[in-house]
Amino acid sequence: MAVTFQQHIVQEQANLSGSPELQWMLSGIVLATKLIQAQVRRAGLVDILGSLGETNVQGEVQQKLDVYANETLINSLKIRQSIGVIASEENEQLLVVQKDLANAQYAIVFDPLDGSSNIDVAVTIGTTFSIFRRPENVDVNDPMQWILQTGRNQIAAGYVVYGSSTVLVYSLGNGVHAFTLDPSIGSYILTHENIQMPAQGSYYSMNEAYCAEFSPIYLNYLERLKTGKLDKFYSSRFVGSLVADFHRTLLRGGIFIYPENKTYPEGRLRLMYEANPIAFIAEQAGGKASNGKLPILDIKPNDLHQRTALIVGGAVEMAEFERFMAEAETSKAVSLN
Ligand code: FDP
Question: What is the pTM assigned to this prediction?
Answer without folding.
Answer: 0.93
